[in-house]
Amino acid sequence: MVYQPAVWPAQSRPPTPMSPLPTVLYVLGGLAVVWGIADFLLVAATPTPPSGQRPTSACFLLAGAGLALCFVAAGQRRKHRSARVWITQQILVNATPDDVFTAISRPARRRLWWPDDALGEITVVETYRPYRFSFRWCSTERHSLLVVFDVAEVDDGTEVHVTEWGFEAMGWRRPELEEEYRKHDEAWDLALSDLREYVEQSGRR
User: Fold this and answer.
1) Could you tell me the residue range of the domain that residue 182 belongs to?
2) Would you say the C-alpha torsion 120, 201, 125, 81 has a positive or negative sign?
3) In angstroms, what is the C-alpha Rg of the chain?
4) How far apart are CA 150 and CA 154, in angstroms?
5) Which one of 56, 132, 133, 136 has the fewest CB atoms closer than 10 angstroms to its CB?
6) Rounded to whole angstroms, how far apart are CA atoms 93 and 153?
């Protein structure tokens, strides 16, 4: 296996607010459908339509246009719900990549800077010492979040980059998604600080 450096996102991508456009399209589409059906019923109930009344074909056209707007609105909502959401953070640690990787990948070491009751159960996906360690956690019946640690040696020490993916696939409703994203973002900020403190203090002993 040849190590390939990860393509790191430049910054986190939080959940974006829902655009009012799908709601507007739904309303306009619904009104058009109702209007078209009402016109058709009016024409059908009138044996001799008065001069200037819309023909039946126009009623179908109006109702069809309304349905098309509803389909567009539904597509916009699906696109918004499936938009990729991720967290990315990085720190610089005054230690070797091997020491950092050991602190991240070994459960006994990991508990010293991130207790198991905070981390929970994880499923290791990839271990490539000392460059990358990834795992899945926060599992539901069908989905889980993927966490990728990339470790790279730089002039001033070791750079640790963590990315957490998969929020949009967890099936959370919008308020829950935003709350989970916020909690995870804050937790990573604290966890990485604790990781740096633990590794650097361990190196001084």
Assistant:
1) 86-204
2) positive
3) 27
4) 13
5) 56
6) 10
- Over the stretch 22-66, which tens digit does the pLDDT of each residue have? 566 656 667 667 767 777 676 666 665 555 555 556 666 666 776
Closest CA to 167 of 89, 76, 75, 81: 81
Contact 159, 90 (CB under 8 A): yes
Element housing 146 (H / E): strand 145-154
End-to-end CA distance of the chain: 35
pTM: 0.65
Domain membership of residue 14 (yes or no) is no
Q: Are residues 155 and 73 in the same domain?
A: no
- Does 72 share its domain with 91? no
pLDDT tens per residue, range 68-104: 766 666 665 555 454 567 899 999 999 999 999 999 9
CA distance 180 to 170: 10
The reply to whether 41 and 111 lie within a common domain is: no
109 in the same domain as 46: no
d(CA 110, CA 103): 5
SS3 92: strand
What is the spatial distance between Cα 5 and Cα 162, in angstroms, rounded to a whole number?
Answer: 13
Q: Which of 39, 65, 81 represents a domain boundary (last residue)?
A: 81
69 and 152 both lie in a single domain: no
pLDDT in tens, 123-145: 899 999 999 999 988 776 678 88
Residues 101 and 174 in one domain: yes
